[in-house]
């Protein structure tokens, strides 16, 4: 009944199926946040660190929505992770859904990414040199003898600080391609969805990079969605 993640790489239409799975997962997270009308009030009224508030909002929105689950613990360092079952009329797949929440005042169109959060090899130009940094997240994870396709989604809370506290401006939901889609989204350093990261190699800091929303949207507009904060405004899915 369940297709194996490795089958997606080998079958003729497997990568198309993979993108369908990621698009459906993106819709799940977006819909959970669209229906969670308390996001702005919570973010603006809480006194915790902004990053912690964002994590709480994402977790509560998804918990209210609910997902079909498997009784398996998903390894990895990320805010929200669930082993879930994705059902389609033609197939079913086990998935490790990984969702990281970020809150930033600036850098509206980028997100900081660690190598543990992507299964793509990070190919980009840094300091005039082509680099290829190996990711630390596998394309699928095995737990309890079962294989789960890894899907990484970022939820970014963009805010400003005012005299009265936080002011949540926008929420963006970004679906990062699985490493099996390397040739489409990041085949080489010159065709990259990444920009230079915030780490300083001269100081021995761990490698990080930044995901460019603009570059990702140019390849697949649906991978970057804007969640409107006014419930009176209808949400429109970016294709």
Question: Descriptors for this entry?
Answer:
26% helix, alpha+beta, 6 helices, seven-stranded mixed β-sheet, ECO RV Endonuclease, Chain A
Using the 3D structure, state the CATH architecture: 3-Layer(aba) Sandwich
Structural class by helix and strand composition = alpha+beta
Ends apart, CA distance between termini: 30 Å
CATH class category: Alpha Beta
Q: How many strand segments?
A: 12
As for the number of domains, it is 1
Radius of gyration: 18 Å
- Indicate the proportion of strand residues: 35-45%
Largest sheet: 7 strands, mixed
Structure description:
- The chain has 239 residues and is α+β, with helices and mostly antiparallel strands.
- It has a single domain (2-227), classed as ECO RV Endonuclease, Chain A (3-Layer(aba) Sandwich), CATH 3.40.600.
- The protein has helices at residues 5-10, 14-34, 39-45, 50-65, 182-185, 213-219; strands at residues 2-3, 80-88, 91-104, 110-114, 122-126, 129-133, 140-143, 146-162, 165-176, 194-195, 208-212, 224-227.
- Helix 2 packs across helix 4 (50-65).
- The longest helix is centred in the first third of the chain and has 21 residues, at 14-34.
- It is globular and about 55 Å long.
- The mean pLDDT is 90.
